[in-house]
Amino acid sequence: MINLFGFVSSRSYLKGLTTVLLVFAVISCSDTDGDPEDIVGVAATGEATQGTVFIIDATGTEISKPINADGFFRFDVRGMTAPFMLKSVDSNGVDVDLFSYASKANVTANITPLTNLAVYMANGEADLSILYNSWVSSFVNIADTNIKNAQAVINANLSTQYTAFSLDPLTYDFFSTTFLTNSTSFDALLDALSVTLLPNIGISVVGVNMPLFETNIDVADFNIGGDSVAEIGAYTLTLEVTVDDAVSDVLTLSINLPVSSVPSPGNTQIVEDTFSTFYGSVGDIVINSVTVTIGEELETIAVINATITNLDDGDVTYIATYTYTQNI
User: Does 2 fall in a domain?
Assistant: First the structure.
């Protein structure tokens, strides 16, 4: 068995694997002697942000770095004082600045429309540019608990969208989870959303099947960054992929998938869409066959045989086995 992400990286995910390796490489080394104190992340709106990322600490010290082509950035913050506020500025001069937050060093702090929304909510829906410019005197008003609660509210509002992109809304931490700007998974979710902040009016999040954003939504079951509890009656979804007779490890995609997201022998489009979302936009996807069977112990097993064409190194055939097991 081999690891799924390294496995698919050998083909269309090669660029993504390189990014992940780069993240770990820069965390493990430093610019000067002593233990590294790095803050790394990805700046993206779906597409990688092209421009500059700034970071300011509790004393008002500010440094900046160009954002890599894939959205990745890294700061060595030794000698600086937590907490930190981050800002990405797109060089196109059109897109609005986006903000993020890090309570300490040696963490991942992505900068996306959702981190921007979370900090905005934690700041009482007040102007984030003002917060950034007055960080020395204002950081005391931004508590970690407020950030986590804002994340939970966002995840709860986007629960259906998270599930569609094989993300667990109960636990997914969009500040600290590294992702790739390759139109899959969380990056695909960002592609599908438009977030607008309207001071003194409200918050607008537009997407497919997206209801009005509720700031008072129930978040009792959410544990951002932790482990969610499998709900009785929901489904756990796992994935195993075979390419060229090599078989990946089994990857758990969700432990609380609703029954509406489980395919049936007469409805295979659900799992085809799941495969297309997971694979991404590199090459063209040709679905050769899909079989859905009902197994023992409340299991539904879907097997997709698909060929990815128009790749630089030739066509590749994937066999993806999805197992949906009802929680009891």
Answer: no
Q: Which residue has the tokens 């112990």?
A: 297
Are 22 and 30 in contact by the 8 Å Cβ rule? The answer is no
Give the amino acid at 260: S
The answer to whether position 21 is within a domain reads: no
> What is d(CA 64, CA 126) in angstroms, rounded to the nearest whole number?
24
Quote the pTM value: 0.69
Contact 308, 315 (CB under 8 A): yes
Q: Is 87 helix (H, G, I), strand (E, B) or coil?
A: strand
Residues 6+ apart with CB under 8 A from 18: none
- Please give the structure tokens belonging to residue 200: 């003194």
Convert the pLDDT of each residue in 202-231 to its tens digit. 898 887 667 789 999 999 989 998 877 788
Angle between helices 144-157 and 113-122 (to 10 degrees): 130
> C-alpha angle with apex 142: 139 to 148, nearest 5 degrees?
145
Radius of gyration of the chain (CA): 21
Provide the 8-state DSSP code for 27.
Answer: H
Q: Which pLDDT tens digit goes with each residue over 94-149? A: 889 999 999 999 999 999 999 999 999 999 999 999 999 999 999 999 999 999 99
Q: 100 lies in which domain range? A: 31-206
Best CA proximity match to 112, nearest among 175, 163, 59: 175
* Same-domain pairing of 160 and 59: yes
Task: In whole angstroms, give the CA distance from residue 3 to residue 115.
Answer: 29
SS3 260: helix
